[in-house]
Amino acid sequence: MAAASMDHKIAPSILSADFARLGQEVEEVIQSGADLIHFDVMDNHYVPNLTIGPAVCKSLYAHMQRTGIEAPIDVHLMVSPVDQLIEQFIDAGASYITFHPEASQHIDRSLALIRDGGCKAGLVFNPATPLSYLDYVIDKLDMVLIMSVNPGFGGQSFIPAMLDKLRDARRIIDQSGRAIRLEVDGGVKLDNVVEIARAGADTFVAGSAVFSAHRSDDPHGYDSVIRGFRERLADAG
Ligand SMILES: O=C(CO)[C@H](O)[C@H](O)COP(=O)(O)O
Ligand SMILES: [Fe+2]
C-alpha cells in the first residue's frame, strides 16, 4: 500500500558525508532538493560506533541559519541513556528527535521531554523490536522510524522482512488518525525505494546512496541522485 499522504520526503544521512566539509555538504544536498538532514548520533555503548554529538549539531544549525539553508534537522539518537542528550539536542537546534525505546528507562517521560522542548518526537524500531511499543504512546508521536538494518553503520543492505513491518506500521499509523511520519532508515537505494514507498514509508533516509555521489565522476552527483529518488517516488504513487 502506498503512503496515504503521498508527501514523500528525502532525508540524507550525514553519517556518510565528508565531515571535514559538513556545512557545505548539507548546503549541497538541500540545494539539490533534499528535505531533511538526518543526523545519526552513536555512543559506542548502545551501538558499536561513535559519531557526532550536540556540539556539531549546534554548529551546523548556526551555519544553516547564517547561510539561509532551511531544513529540519532530524536527530536519530542511538545512545543510552537518552534523556540528557535529548535536552542538549533541543538546545542545539534539532527539529525531530527520535530514540530507541530499549534505550530509555522511561519512554513516556523521554517523549514528553522532546515535546515540551518544542521538538517533534519519534520512536525508532530495530529490525527485531516489536511495534507493540507503540501501544500506549502513539498519541505522543510525530514520527515512527523503522530501521531496515541493524543500527550502527552506514552502507548495510536493506533487510527485506522490513517491508512487512512497514506495512504493519502504516496500518497502525493510519488507524491512529494522527499525522505521524513513517521513516525508513538503512539500505535505501534507487533500486528499492519504490517497493519501500509502496510498503507505506513516506520519509526516506539515504546515507551512502546520496553521499557516495560526491566521490563519483558526476559533477552533479547530488542533483542526479536526489532527482532519481524523486522520479522513482513519483512512480510509486
Ligand atoms: O542510522 C543509521 C545507521 O545506524 C543510518 O542513518 C543509516 O545506516 C543510513 O545509511 P545507509 O543509507 O548507507 O544505510
Ligand atoms: Fe539513522
Fold and architecture overview:
By secondary structure, the chain is α/β, with parallel strands linked by helices. It has one domain: Aldolase class I (TIM Barrel, Alpha-Beta Barrel). The protein is 35% helix and 17% strand. The chain has an eight-stranded parallel β-sheet with strand order 1-8-7-6-5-4-3-2. The longest helix has 16 residues, at 221-236. Bound molecules: ribulose-5-phosphate (5RP) and fe (ii) ion. Fe (ii) ion binds next to strand 2.
Radius of gyration, rounded? Answer: 16 Å
Terminal CA distance reads: 10 Å
Low-confidence stretches: 1-5
Strand content: 15-25%
Structural class: alpha/beta
Compute the number of strand runs.
8
Heterogens = ribulose-5-phosphate, fe (ii) ion
Q: Can you write the helix and strand succession as a string?
A: EHEHEHEHEEHEHEHH
Main-sheet strand order equals 1-8-7-6-5-4-3-2
The dominant shape is globular
Total of helices? 8
Question: What's the average pLDDT?
Answer: 95
Tally the structural domains: 1
| CATH-derived architecture | Alpha-Beta Barrel
Please outline the major beta sheet: 8 strands, parallel
Helix content: 25-40%
Q: What is the CATH T-level topology?
A: TIM Barrel
Keywords:
237 residues, alpha/beta, TIM Barrel, eight-stranded parallel β-sheet, 8 strands, disordered N terminus, binds ribulose-5-phosphate, binds fe (ii) ion, Ribul_P_3_epim, metal ion binding, carbohydrate metabolism, Ribul_P_3_epim-like, zinc
